[in-house]
Amino acid sequence: MIEPNTPARHPNPAGVQRIAVMTSGGDAPGMNAAIRAVVRTAAFEGLEVMGVRRGFSGLHRGELKLIGPRDVANTIQRGGTILLTARSATWRTEEGRARGAQHLRDNGVGGLIVIGGDGSFHGAHLLEQEHGIPVIGVPGTIDNDLYGTDHTIGYFTAVETALDAVDKLRDTGASHERIFVIEVMGRHAGHIALDVAVAGGAEEVFIPEDDKPIEDVIEIVKASVQKGKTGSIVIVAEGVPGGAQGIGDAIQAGTGLETRVSILGHIQRGGTPVSSDRILASRLGEAAVHALMDGVSGAMIGRRGGDIIHTPLHETWEKRKDVNRDLYRCAKRLSV
Ligand code: F6P
């Protein structure tokens, strides 16, 4: 069947008239695409949107302002977040949350969409529990560490950015016949590290989910030189004890080979979002507005397979999304 040119309006049994949207925690490429999707879906459905600046930090200070479809023009391709973001200590206090809730009520806001990671969802969950304000989470973090969605907004771009750096470091590493130990982001999760290890052809990868004896890695690096490899790449997720520096020092001491350490850091959070992040953000932002109109609250919108699904907010941090262990095995086989 051919789809009509203009989709039908979504039903609004919850009778929501005005919603708010914020970005919170670490920024991630594609957050702007998600804000745009929220604002434009709301406009299509006849709802008003207030943008909250600086996440929960701004909310308890009352930094809210009406935003419309033209305010999000030319933002789909921009990294960072036009609403600004923060990690708020005040939101951890009951008074801070009460002030934020009052600002939402004073502005006639019937639901809040929070684009962020698990810390931000905690904050949203408390707002709902303590003040009865409907909240919906949209997963926005480069770490991809949220249960309830295959991928988080920003993850695909962060992997591309890290991979670009790994390719460049490989050029110089191979030319000097050095070992390069490269640290990627991922405080508690090895998703970025595993993807980058496979796509970057790494010899070894360290992730926080695994406890790997450094002695084994020293032997692997020594063996790779004996096999005639001109350089080796070792990927380390930042959450691994000792980080890349500790592992690099141990490899240099254990192999006697010239080793360099490169910590990629916040560069992985910036830049133009790749298409997969923009598409994910657009779909999740749209679904978040519809969820509020349906009367859903206290849930994160995610995508599993091709389906848009809802997961209770607390499950997003209580249940663990494991890394793809097949990727780990694949990286090992291909580094033979
Ligand atoms: O947003 C997730 C993340 O990028 C982690 O990978 C990293 O550990 C952390 O944020 C860094 O946070 P901050 O911006 O506070 O330095």
From TrEMBL:
Binding site for ADP: R36, A37, V38, V39, R40, R170, G201, A202, E203, K227, K229, T230, G231
Activity regulation comment: Allosterically activated by ADP and other diphosphonucleosides, and allosterically inhibited by phosphoenolpyruvate.
Binding residue positions for Mg(2+): D118
Pathway: Carbohydrate degradation; glycolysis; D-glyceraldehyde 3-phosphate and glycerone phosphate from D-glucose: step 3/4
A Pfam family assignment: PFK
TM spans (from-to): none
Main location: cytoplasm
Residues holding ATP: G26, R87, S88, G117, D118, G119, S120
InterPro entries registered for this protein in UniProt: ATP_PFK, ATP_PFK_prok-type, PFKA_ATP_prok, Phosphofructokinase_CS, Phosphofructokinase_dom, PKF_sf
Annotated binding of substrate, by residue: T141, I142, D143, R178, M185, G186, R187, E238, R260, H266, I267, Q268, R269
E.C. code: 2.7.1.11
Recorded superkingdom: Bacteria
Annotated signal sequence range: none
Subcellular locations according to the entry: Cytoplasm
Summary of subunit composition and partner proteins: Homotetramer.
Catalysed transformations (reactions): beta-D-fructose 6-phosphate + ATP = beta-D-fructose 1,6-bisphosphate + ADP + H(+)
Residues in Phosphofructokinase domain copies: 18-292
PROSITE patterns, per the entry: PHOSPHOFRUCTOKINASE
UniProt keyword Magnesium, yes or no: yes
Protein name (record): ATP-dependent 6-phosphofructokinase
One GO MF term: 6-phosphofructokinase activity
Keyword hit for tRNA processing: no
Gene source species: Deinococcus arenicola
Described function: Catalyzes the phosphorylation of D-fructose 6-phosphate to fructose 1,6-bisphosphate by ATP, the first committing step of glycolysis.
Enzyme category, top tier: transferase
Gene this chain is encoded by: pfkA
Active-site residues from the entry: D143
